[in-house]
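[09:14] KT: can someone run the structure on this one? pasting the chain below
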Amino acid sequence: MLDFPNAKINLGLQLIEKRPDGFHNLESCFYPVQWCDALEIVPAPENKFEMSGLPVPGNPDTNLCLKAYNLLQQKHNLPPIYMHLHKVIPMGAGLGGGSSDAAFAIKLLNKLFDLNLTVEEQQNYARQLGSDCAFFIENKPVIAIEKGDVFTETDLSLSGYSCVIVYPGIHITTAEAYSNVTPEKPSCNIETILKQDITLWKDLLVNDFERSLFPKYPELQALKENLYEAGAVYASMTGSGSAVYGIFKGDEPANLVFPQHYLIWKGLL
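[09:31] RB: done, structure tokens below
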């Protein structure tokens, strides 16, 4: 069984307060984009996990896809499987690729072995693997609050817009991103801002990580400025990683040029 775990972008990201458990309460709009990995899971005589595509740092035995299998195996006594993950979504980019892989593993295992798990049950498993994993179970635009794992529906649609995502090859870990941020309660919440015309987002919709990461990595700020110069109606860092995206009315511009080592995704929203 094969599926294609996709990335997401954050439309705004406000860090509201630090929690007693060390995490942060936040507000953001998670919006799916079709920059995808590939994940295959089939029954097998014994468990085997392989990866290809972009190199993934760390021990493969700690991959979130395997953790998803082990989590469900403990509860549902799953048989052995062969799992192959082909990585296309860059790591440390703020695009949620690893979380998506884990969530899609849960969905594939649910289908493959007829577990009949509800959406809520799948989300609860996903929450045990990462703060934004649960988003990818339903995989539709939401307002995310608390740790990024509690959702409220939104009718936001960016149909008719295109997106360009640029990853400059800078790996920013979650720990690094959060080490220099100061949470504060915003004067206006993201859900309210997103109801404004998209041409007003530039001055209203912020990602709080930009304040600390742009001075440290000036090429990220330059990327955002380049996207605006190319005609983006809105541009921002996404998540806590180093990918920067621009939203364009209609098709993306053909005149965008970036260094060869940058990874680029272009597509409709």
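[09:33] KT: thanks! The first strand starts at residue 2 and ends at 3.
[09:34] RB: yep, looked fine to me
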